[in-house]
Amino acid sequence: MSRFYISTPIYYVNDEPHIGHAYTTILADVLSRFHRIAGHDVFFLTGTDEHGQKVEQAARDRGIDPQTHCDEMVVRFQELWERLEISYDDFIRTTEDRHKEVVCAILQRLYDEGEIYADDYEGWYCVPDERFWTEKDLVDGNCPDCGRPVVQISEKNYFFRMSAYQDWLISHIETHPQFIQPETRRNEILGFLKQPLNDLCISRPKARLAWGIPLPFDEEYVCYVWFDALINYITAPGYLQDDAAFARWWPASCHLIGKDILTTHCVYWPTMLKAMGVEIPETVMGHGWWLVDEQKMSKSLGNVIRPLDLAEKYGVDAFRYFLVREMVLGLDSSFSEEAFVRRYNAELANDLGNLLNRSVVMADRYLEGVVPVVDVKHPALRALQEQTEKTLEGTLDALNGLNPNRVLDVTWQLVREANRFAEVQAPWNLAKETEKRSELEVTIYGLLETCRHLAVLIFPVMPGKAREIWKQIGSEENLETLHLDDLKAWGGLRPGTQVVPGGPVFPRIEEVDLEDKQEEAEEKDMSDEKQDVVSFQEFQKLKLRVARIQAAERVEGTDRLLKLQISLGEEKRQIVAGIAQYYEPETLVGKQIVVVANLEPATIRGVESQGMLLAASEGDSLALLQPESEIPDGAEVR
Ligand code: MSP
Q: Which among 128, 585, 609, 629 is least buried, having the fewest CB atoms inside 10 angstroms?
């Protein structure tokens, strides 16, 4: 692949951006930057959705006209993206002429070709969501999406013949498994398509909603906001306006979206494109939701997380890192500041920060700050080089799977290997013996060269910190234009370079606040008279299930931990268990065990663990809990 076109949803300008908007945009930025360093041509598009009821209402609430409202609000998004180092190539606003012209041209053509027709419409309408629903869609008479009351409306409207494309769409999804990702979302859409698809109402009478693009063939109506908004993805790369640019970028490689807007992107959009005779995007990737204490963020709950607050408090790069690292692509994630600080201290301050700091400080202390001349084929460096190669390969693989979270996994394998190398080589001991000078030089070179690789590898996620690392190791190349290919030849750090120690790149965050909170919780526990008993309801919250171990291996760099792949029937999971001293991994394969299935996922030594196995232990002995006889995998333990 030599070109990569990625888009974010265009965000409504009815409110301030929050952590959810920041997440999608950061993820798109990280993917764009990775593709750039992989040597691909990238087009990264984001923007704002400025028409429709929500925006009109927000402007009315402020007592100003909608365009002024949009002009003011859009700046908040643009300023935030600048602060978060979002490297978009184009920012589209749906109120721009370039967009309105394309929407009108498409509407007129589809109307002329009979793909859009007028009809009387009677149905249930959700005002805040601007969507019509059929009687059977309603839940307890309310909008199935937001739960708010709906109103019955009967009026002439214009419709797009979406139903005509249902069979085609099903077959497209079936023959293009990469079109909707991850697979759970694809199944959701295929499930949705089992019912007959209706035609799509694409107009709103001006009398009810004036803030939209007027239909070119009937000035009493404006275009439905979604029909207008989706078209942004082809307006920006030049549809009907710049054929060469459009041919270069379309079809999009990836529309990155949250799972809330799956139907519009996976049903409306491909059928619209099909009717226009335009190719279908390669992938729509629907990520999960950021929740707060397992709840949706909402103004009324007062739990909205504002990205700027966190970026100010902990730094833009740490914020970007946390969002990308914490959320497993496709699943929901609960945001917590405690988890943020824990991850920061363990993975950034300890793992990466220490590596850099000790490498530069030792070069300064033992080698007068000068990168030494060494033979890069020295056997002591082999393991480090092999891990570097694996990391580079793993990075490209993870990129093909559009999974930056996995990229960080493989990058941290290199960080850990380098820290292990430092421990094994113990340069602080080598420095004490003059005859060990050349081994000392090889060791420090190995560490600094790994830091150079790591700076390039983390650049897409933490551009600012990567620049700081670059500066400290004294590298003179231009970090911004380096490619992964340039890293293949290990040993790029030039001898004679002067390192520039600059203190910890990731200073530890004091966990005082967190400790206070923990103490409070403990005190509360102690004051609870019934501290040793759990109620039946509490016990019932635990979901214990039988699982079968399908594969087991040691977690690199630990004596205690095994990584197990387990099956709960339909569902496969990975767990990490501290049983490596008691079992050889291969003897576990095929065994049935009991696991806590609803334990909050955790990352242990950089490895994701989605549950916990149960074992009995006494002194030095340990025994796994197992069902007394074979029972189907996944069976509940009650
Ligand atoms: N304007 C439409 C999109 C049109 S695209 C042609 C829209 N805008 S929105 O402002 O509501 O943004 C929705 C998107 O913001 C989601 O799809 C997701 O990318 C992001 N998020 C908003 N809240 C979110 C979370 N709580 N968690 C993660 N991302 C979510 O819908």
A: 629
Question: Residue 37 corresponds to which tokens in the numbers above?
Answer: 């360093």
Q: Would you say residue 66 lies in a domain?
A: no
- Asked if residue 529 and residue 473 are part of one domain, the reply reads no
Q: Are residues 363 and 429 in the same domain?
A: yes
485-543 confidence digits (pLDDT tens): 888 788 899 999 999 999 999 999 987 555 555 555 555 444 444 445 776 767 777 88
Closest-CA residue, ligand 1 atom 8, reads: 11
- What are the tokens at 532? 């040793």
Q: Are residues 340 and 476 in the same domain?
A: yes
SS3 330: coil
The SS3 of residue 131 is strand
> Environment class of residue 203 by beta-carbon count within 10 Å: exposed (0-12), middle (13-18) or buried (19+)?
buried
What is d(CA 56, CA 70) in angstroms, rounded to the nearest whole number?
10
Number of domains in the chain: 2
Q: Are residues 349 and 446 in the same domain?
A: yes
Mutation choice for ligand 1 from 81, 261, 272, 329, CB with most ligand atoms inside 8 A:
261
3-state secondary structure of 7: strand
Structure tokens at 583: 């079992």
Domain containing residue 417: 336-487
Q: Please state, in angstroms and rounded to a whole number, the distance separating the CA atoms of residues 111 and 103.
A: 12
Dump pLDDT digits (tens) for 403-412: 999 999 999 9
Task: State percent of the chain over pLDDT 70.
Answer: 96
- Here the tokens at position 401 are 């799977």
Indicate if 341 and 389 belong to the same structural domain. yes
Q: Collapsing DSSP states into helix, strand and coil, what is residue 304?
A: coil
Residues having CB closer than 6 A to ligand 1 are 9-12, 20-21, 23-24, 49, 229-230, 232, 257-258, 260-261, 289-290, 297
* pTM summary value: 0.80
